[in-house]
Amino acid sequence: MTQETYIFASHLDLAQHIRKESAGLLQARLSDSLDLEAQLKQAHWNVKGRDFFQLHELFDKLHGEIEDLTDTLAERITTIGGIADGRVQTTSAKTTLYEYPLQAKGGAAHLKAVAAALAEFGKHLRADIDKAAAIGDADTADVFTEVSRAVDKQLWFVEAHLVEE
Ligand SMILES: [Fe+2]
């Protein structure tokens, strides 16, 4: 099932061992990101209650943004010579996000579930910024920075709904 990170030969001026390590970091977040896409659709489809329509729309907007960021992570892997593994089997085996609660019903339950997933994803991304920088791959660190900045903003949007007025 799991395979050694494969790296194609490239004229890119990053050593193969650096590209291999970066591809491993990126692949871990790619699995998370694909899981998060599915989680946001889960929220989009199943949320109920008085705020149904705006949350239904919000979760779909967040899904669209995460879809683009997933592409950014995957294409950084292929840019540095790796194989982006977007198979559902890999995503299921490797995601580090919490399993989405199937019974979530009202807006607050979905907002809390989505907030937990975004916070967990953001935490891992922030750690990866430093890891990529430490191995000498500033561009991959920049990708993680771009994704984590967007995810932090999403968390703000979601958490703002949970503040008592
Ligand atoms: Fe839809």
TrEMBL record:
Keywords noted in UniProt: DNA-binding
Gene Ontology molecular function: any one: ferric iron binding
Domain Ferritin/DPS: 25-163
InterPro entries registered for this protein in UniProt: DPS_DNA-bd, DPS_DNA-bd_CS, Ferritin-like, Ferritin-like_SF, Ferritin_DPS_dom
SUPFAM superfamilies, per database record: Ferritin-like
Family, as annotated: Belongs to the Dps family.
Name of the molecule in the record: Starvation-inducible DNA-binding protein
Taxonomy of the source species: Bacteria, Pseudomonadati, Pseudomonadota, Alphaproteobacteria, Micropepsales
